[in-house]
Description:
single chain, 24-stranded mixed β-sheet, disordered N terminus, Pectin_lyase_fold/virulence, PbH1, Right handed beta helix domain-containing protein
Amino acid sequence: MVVCVKLMMQSQCHQPGLLSQCRPVFPLSLRAGVAGRRAATVHLYVSPTGSDSNGGRQVSHPVKTLQHALNMLESDGFRGNNVFVELMAGYHYMTSTLRFHVPHNGTVGGQPIPSSLFHHVTDTHVLQRLPLEARGKVLELDLTGAGIQDLGTLTTYGFYHLWKAPLEIFINGRPLKLAQWPNDGFINIKCLPDGEHGRRFTYDSGNRDSCWAQETAPWAYGWWHRSWADSSLPVSSVDPHTHTITLAKDSQYGLRVGHYTPTGPQVGNALQGGYFRVINMLCEIDQPGEYYIDRTTKKLYVWPNTPHQTLTSSDVVYGSMLPQCLKIEKRFTDLHFEDFTIEGCRQFGVDANSVSGLTFSNMEFKNTGSFGIHCTGDCRRVSVLASEFHDVGGGMYIAGGDRTTLTSSEIVVRDNHLWEFSRCGAFPGDAIHVAGVGARVEHNHVHHGQYSGIRWNGNDHVIEYNHVHHMCWNASDCGALHTGRQWTWRGNVVRYNYIHHTLRYMPGADVRGIMLDDEYSSALIEHNVFFDNEVHVNIGGGRDNVIRYNVMYNATKYSIQVDARGMGSDPAHNHIASLTQTLEASPYKTPLWQSRYPELANILSKHPEAPEGNQIYENVFYNTVDKERIHYSSGTRTVRKDYFDVHHNLRAYKTTDFWSPDDADFRFRCEAAQWASSHHVPQPVTLDQTVSSRAPVPCDSPTTTVAPASTVPQTSYMPDGSSPNTLYPNIPKGGNAEALPRYFASALNGTYKENTGTQAGTEEGCLSRAAQEWKWCGSPSNGRVIAIYGTTGAMTFATEGCYFAEYGCHGSDNPGFHRDIYAEKHQNGSTDEEGCLKRAHAQWPYCGSDPTRPYTSIFGPTGHFRTAGAGCWIKLQSCPAHRNLEGFFYDAWGATNLGTDHDKMECFDRAEYFWTRCGSQADAPVTAFYRPAAANHTVP
Length: 940
């Protein structure tokens, strides 16, 4: 029997429930069952407005719930037939875990929360605990009155914890964050009164912690001792007088004094760990998107992350209630899920054990406490295809196959997009983790994760044609692709991947593109392209690894790092005992294993502690002259040919040996091409080969059937180049002009073309002349110098104080330039540039976030300005590949199709899109301005 759950009509909406049919691109379908050769085809209709007392076989008489539909599959008329379960339009909320092949025994499940139940906080005691900026912004909800009883329990997440989250809150499909401080970054531990194995530590927070002692259930999250082992821990007490926190539980490895810095280079391995943030505190709701649940009063407090920072009837709010959304057990076979969203699950989106024939296609997984897909035991023929994973506590963990007989699991993970997949804890929230035998991980795009992207355990896996970048951004001693501490995981191949921008932002050891940790042995790493990583590949004391035919471009530290940690006496790095134990537990002496892995058969008689048999050959390296190609961390004792046979590699000295590194095109040319030809080294994989195994869309095909937006938000009152300069319309387009006050020397009066400014010919250089000239004239308090860049019409002025350029507030028709008295009085806006410029972001929502009335703040002494308003705006310096694209414009297509007006990251991604479209020229940067947050992002 084949069972298909399929969407009848698609709608454009948010994803409010645990199973949602409202994805913006794909329709919803779900298929389940085993195909029969002579089965009839039957349709079973499901609608949120239906009734489970209906028969469900006509579109006019649908059943109501998916679970009832699945229960009907074993009844007469459905059993043995091919059944298409047609999901009709609407939100399919689940009130219990959807279970397959087991009796219905679900728990109370998720539910929507009407926005009308939220109210502004009026309780004086609560208001006093909130930060000043949050008062008037935070809403409260009586959870009991909303029908939510199960609040769950806040438990430890992070290092090796498959987190089961408590009740979490989501608005319009986006997760809120437990109130924390700092909002970004960490606080260093200063002192350990009871030593590294105690629970007390001091810190420096200014007077920020004066309210922490009032919190009833505070927690802290940190990298307590090592920068590769994070965890959240409950706080027993806070002493704001001595700035001391006492943890309620021991950290796994103890505590350390911290040396974290928010910016700049980070310290090395000896000074790792020792930094934290506080979480789950009502008094730290200090920005949109944060929430807190008082488990005593069962009240929810939230500062909405909506554009207007409040809730309206169009906003969809819901809480996670189910531990898993889908539970699949007892070797149930041939289930197919297609084209819908799984979200809002406290632990796993899908939890399966030893299933066979499980397929996910064109799915979306988000807002889970742990992995979107968790398939343990012996899972066979599991495929995850063309799906999206984001805002999860890990993408997928799938294990299967028989290691004794080396029988393949036939796991396939292909064409998926995974990003921001370590939502709370960093480890073990990998994007893709496969275990067992014979998985294929190919053509996936993996990026922006706190820790590793792709991790593997077991044998005979193939990891190829993946694009992995911007990993390890919240950890050190980490790899974008990572495995370790095994001699027996052999036969694994990592090839044809693009791996880049894995850089270290935290204290500790290096981060790597591929990390073979703790004596891992026998990986074949070939035909990959590495660029802009701190270290491209490491061999951490292991054996029989081969690194060949790779491009290794521009490592920021060194290209390959190797060591002989197994030969050292430090127990933290010598794992011979545990490696030997796992070896003896494996069937490595059987004829099958001896024939497949001959180097393993006699490993114990061949100095197993030594990194023997590694080969590094026929790779192409390019680094600046101060960067090593091979770094031997264990010193000269490691530099032995029987340990690391390094030969026939090319060190390129010129970027011209590659087609276009700025465009991530590392095909060989010039001397590199001649060398490759003589050594029979094939050209490297190109980036477009990693994107998809399917045929590319022709360039002239339309990318969407949705029309661009027809309305454009108002441009800034002070021209910034996004619209014509109506204040000074007569400036020649080819010229730069200054307007000077009348009392200056007669030779400088009036408006004139200026050709002597710094950075001649650029908008930035022209506009900087206003401040330079004003200061040259003595910085008069009653004078103003205006600079206008004729080419774009952008202008600014220099004078004393802080100003707004505005259209008016709350219905006021008083456009113009006005002194920002509040900024000058309360934020040192006359002398503090940031104190002045951040006022635009505050004033625009204060005045109602009116898209027709943006606000621009101008800091007079420098002429720098910042605009807050509606929309995502794109500024191109030039566009060599498409001359019809130029200037400063509103991204109407992005607003309609990608939601760039309301999603900062989507807006910022458009900068990279346009930069790539314009030819990816380093001297032609593109800036995206997300005006609701007065924020911008420039690529490159």
